[in-house]
Design a protein that fits this description.
It is built from three helices and two strands, in the order αββαα. With 92 residues, it is α+β, with helices and mostly antiparallel strands. A two-stranded antiparallel sheet has the order 1-2. Strand 1 and strand 2 form a beta hairpin. The longest helix is centred in the C-terminal third of the chain and has 19 residues. It is elongated, with a radius of gyration of 25 Å. It starts with 17 loop residues before the first helix and ends with a helix.
Length: 92
Amino acid sequence: MASWTTTVNESNQVNIPSELASQLNIQPGTRLQWEKTGEGAILVRPLPNKAQLARELMGAGRQWLQPQSDPIGDLVREREEDHQLDSADQLP
């Protein structure tokens, strides 16, 4: 396991070693989760950004779809039918 040493500055900030930042894809704006794990130990994890989360979730429910199904088209048709029914209810 690799090990790095850094120094905390006056503002309680630390620099992430460039090799580690590259390996973990840590860039300016990356959020880090800090966790106290035991006597004198700290665990730091980079958190995924919103774009990464969206990519991971994209298509997550496809495994439950029937072949040739079109849930978006079904929803649009259902909304159109509801709108037509609402419009018909408002006629004198």
